[in-house]
Design brief:
The protein has 188 residues and is an alpha+beta fold. It is 34% helix and 18% strand.
Length: 188
């Protein structure tokens, strides 16, 4: 079915949901849109939940993205935004729609070591451990592009020294799938 749905805006909310069913909207999706997020479900998603917050959930129609019909969910409180986006999508559709691409995924992790008595020694030990750490990373990311390409670029170094007043030093170590780096940041 096409995402070009003339008169979509004239339908009542339940009629809009029914009009989206041929595009793959399932019964469970319909229920979620009608009922919203329960407090119990919210509490399972994030910490310290005290309530939920409701905003209108709409869809922009008419989108042709990479030659595929799409409707674009939008949660906005500003009038006319969804209508304007749908109108622009309709105009772009006449010339082949939109083309989209994305960069490959890139994951970053950080470790902060606190109260390190010997920062230089810690860096040395971490540098010595990098081949084993890189091997473990590759084992965890089998099938990803970086692992398939054999990417194992590693870099490590830098630390914050003992702060003024003799407080303990803190050392930053940042890692990504293919790179280890250490942005220096005073943390006292």
């Amino acid at each position: 079915m096409s995402s070009r749905i003339p008169g979509f805006y004239k339908l009542p909310p339940d009629g809009r949901l029914r009009a989206l069913q041929p595009l793959g909207l399932r019964e469970v999706d319909l229920a979620a849109y009608r009922e919203g997020l329960s407090l119990e479900a919210a509490d399972l998603m994030v910490e310290n939940v005290i309530g939920t917050f409701s905003l209108p959930c709409a869809v922009a129609v008419n989108f042709l993205i990479n030659r595929e019909d799409r409707v674009v969910p939008m949660v906005v409180e500003e009038p006319s935004v969804v209508a304007a986006v749908s109108n622009v999508a309709r105009l772009a559709r006449a010339d082949g729609g939109f083309t989209a691409e994305s960069d490959r995924a890139h994951m970053i992790g950080q470790i902060q070591l606190m109260d390190v008595r010997d920062p230089e020694g810690a860096v040395t030990r971490l540098q010595e451990a990098l081949p084993a750490l890189a091997s473990r990373r590759r084992a965890c990311t089998r099938g990803s592009r970086s692992a398939a390409a054999g990417s194992s670029t590693s870099r490590c170094g830098g630390w914050s020294t003992t702060s003024p007043g003799g407080r303990s030093s803190r050392w930053w170590w940042s890692s990504s799938c293919s790179t280890w780096s250490t942005p220096w940041a005073p943390t006292w």
